[in-house]
Amino acid sequence: ECYVQNTAREYAKIYAAEAEPLEGFGEVPEIIPIFLVHRPANNIPYATVEEELVGEFVKYSVRDGKEVNFLRRDSEAGQKCCTFQHWVYEKTNGSLLVTDLQGVGMKLTDVGIATLAKGYKGFKGNCSISFIEQFKALHQCNKYCEMLELKSLRSTHQKQRKPTSTKSKTLPNSPTIKKTVPKKAREPRDFISSEH
C-alpha cells in the first residue's frame, strides 16, 4: 500500500512540475504521502498513517466497469485527475496507469496502480490490467489534456479498429440507410425497455 501510493505520488510531483507553469492550469492534484509505522508492543505490529482529509470525499476515477463517477467530469479536481491519468498513461507508453483516484478536493489518497502483465520498469501494480483497457475506452480528453498537449486516445483507439475489420469498408454505405429508418424505429423501444 505504501509502495503503490508513494510511487503514484512521485508521478504526481512530475505531473505538477509540468502542469503548474502552464498559463491557466492552476492547482494540481496532490497524492498525500503514506507511512508505515512499526509498533512492536501492539498485537498488530505494523500500521499505515497519513494526513487526515477533512471535507467531502469523492472518487474521481473509474475503478471497475460497474462504477462510473460523473463528478470527475464536472469538477475541476475530477478533470485534472483524469488528465493526470492520461499523462501517466502517455509517459509510460500505456504500460502504467494510476487509478482509483479519490480524496478531498485536490488531495488524493488510497490510489491504485495498474500495469501490464510484465509490469513497468520492475514495478507491478496492485490493480487489474483491465483497468488500463477500460481507461483507454472511457477516457474523454478535457481542456487540461489539451493544455498538456496529450494525444487523444479516441483517435488511437479508432485507428486500431479500422485495419482489423474488413466490414468497415462496407459499413460506410449502410449507416445512411440505418440512420433514416431502423434507428428511429429502435429509439422508442429502447426508451420503453429502459423503463421496465
Automatic annotation (TrEMBL):
GO annotation, cellular component aspect: basolateral plasma membrane
Lineage: superkingdom: Eukaryota
Presence of keyword Magnesium: no
Residues in Alpha-type protein kinase domain copies: 1-153
EC number assigned by the record: 2.7.11.1
Ranges of Basic and acidic residues composition bias in the record: 184-196
The keyword Zinc is assigned to this record: no
Chief place where the protein resides: membrane
Compositionally biased spans, kind Polar residues: 165-177
Compartment(s) where it occurs, according to its Swiss-Prot or TrEMBL record: Basolateral cell membrane
PROSITE patterns: ALPHA_KINASE
Gene Ontology terms for molecular function: ATP binding; protein serine/threonine kinase activity
Region (Disordered): 156-196
SMART domains per record: Alpha_kinase
Key words, A-Z: Cell membrane, Disulfide bond, Immunoglobulin domain, Kinase, Membrane, Repeat, Serine/threonine-protein kinase, Transferase
Catalyzed reactions per annotation: L-threonyl-[protein] + ATP = O-phospho-L-threonyl-[protein] + ADP + H(+); L-seryl-[protein] + ATP = O-phospho-L-seryl-[protein] + ADP + H(+)
Cited function: Protein kinase that recognizes phosphorylation sites in which the surrounding peptides have an alpha-helical conformation. Regulates cardiac development and cardiomyocyte differentiation by negatively regulating Wnt/beta-catenin signaling.
Similarity comment: Belongs to the protein kinase superfamily. Alpha-type protein kinase family. ALPK subfamily.
Record-given protein name: Alpha-protein kinase 2
Provenance organism: Anseranas semipalmata (Magpie goose)
